[in-house]
Input
Amino acid sequence: MKTLLIVWHSRTGAARAMAEAAAEGARTEPAVATRLLAAHEAEAADLIGADGIVFAAPENLASLSGAMKDFLDRAYYPALGRLNGRPYAALIAAGSDGQGAARQVARIATGWRLRAVADPVIVCTRAQTPEAILAPKHLADSDLAPCRDLGAALAAGLAAGIF
Output
């Protein structure tokens, strides 16, 4: 059985909801085990044991959130040379454009020699004030549908041997 790992970090709920939607989509594929792990719980061994990976995180100040970056920093060297060619995708919750965090994930994935199998899904919450940025986020189903679709597609590709 193939394994899809979804590593997430979220403070206000948006990135977590996106990760959970991706997991929901992935779980429609019975031949793929889906693991959903918070970034602070995930280790390099989790990445190494996965056949495909989804990273879900908020963009903070045009970068990945600190907790997701901490996970990537902790896992980078232990996983280096052990993930080559594995498929990955990214989910970014952003207050504005999300491009900085998406670029950061792509650069790290390039170092691991991961293979992007989808464009990043970026949900823009338009939170621009301190109060709006820190407030709990409740995403619309229209925002979560692409996350579910990405999870389902990645799991289907793993099951079919495409990835």
User: Anything to note?
Assistant: The mean pLDDT is 97. Helices lie at 14-26, 44-48, 66-79, 99-112, 130-134, 141-160. Strands lie at 2-8, 32-38, 52-60, 63-64, 87-94, 115-116, 121-124.
